[in-house]
């Protein structure tokens, strides 16, 4: 790793979901995927500067940048290091489209930056809310804001003209997947003003699977064998189970009137109103997301 990368290891509890698939990535740095993942955070302290350099490169063609797809960019450490304002500013200056997935409420600190970005480029925000069961939240997502607080984020962003969808993830088999639980969650999401809801069943990749199984054995000793049977094919629940969950969530979403996600403004480097008509679609609208590596 070059000297300019400026990484720093930070000790302190972050978002410590027992099921988090990002646990495996901790092993790439020779760190523990269990307690180590819960207590050690590696921070790239000069990420905004690296991003500006990458965006200014002739090689960069303005691809969509997705943030928060591995670890949450608005977890507790962001409150200390405050990297996202610089990142959002850099993206806005280049009118580069981006999206953010978070289960943190700290994103509201940057509300005005998000509004500014939405005026010049396509942005997307999704909040992760897999369930609204308070007891389940306290046991499987310690260190994260409650589902109610996350839905307040959806409500606030939506009221300020920033469409916000909900990634209903994870739907946890045998603990959060009953029709009654799914209906209650979708209803709460709809009442918060979400623009869309997308269900995602729990997946258990190596690293996360062992940690989750240990937690399951301790808290729900009758479930590990059922999980072994359900996930015998690998890291993902079988297709029939995923289709069942998706079908129920879609039915409830239709019942509560959650429509499809509406994309924001076209990419507009100047910041002036876009003069293109519907017959002149944005050439980048259908471009697939690209992952930006800040190394």
Describe this structure as you would to a colleague.
- The protein has 295 residues and is α/β, with parallel strands linked by helices.
- It has twelve helices and seven strands.
- The strands form two sheets. The protein has a five-stranded parallel β-sheet with strand order 3-4-5-6-7. A two-stranded antiparallel ribbon has the order 1-2.
- Helix 5 runs parallel beside helix 6 and helix 9 packs across helix 12.
- The relative contact order is 0.15.
- The C terminus is likely disordered.
Topology, please?
Blueprint: E1 7-11, H1 23-26, H2 35-39, E2 40-44, H3 47-56, E3 65-67, H4 76-81, H5 84-93, E4 98-102, H6 111-118, E5 123-128, H7 134-140, H8 147-159, E6 164-171, H9 179-191, E7 197-201, H10 208-219, H11 224-230, H12 239-255
Parallel strand pairs: 3-4, 4-5, 5-6, 6-7
Antiparallel strand pairs: 1-2
Strand order of the largest sheet: 3-4-5-6-7
The percent range for helix content is: 25-40%
- Average pLDDT works out at 82
Please report the number of helical segments.
Answer: 12
Tags for this entry?
single chain, 295 residues, alpha/beta, two-stranded antiparallel ribbon, 12 helices, 7 strands, disordered C terminus
What is this entry, summarized?
With 295 residues, the protein is α/β, with parallel strands linked by helices. The chain has twelve helices and seven strands.
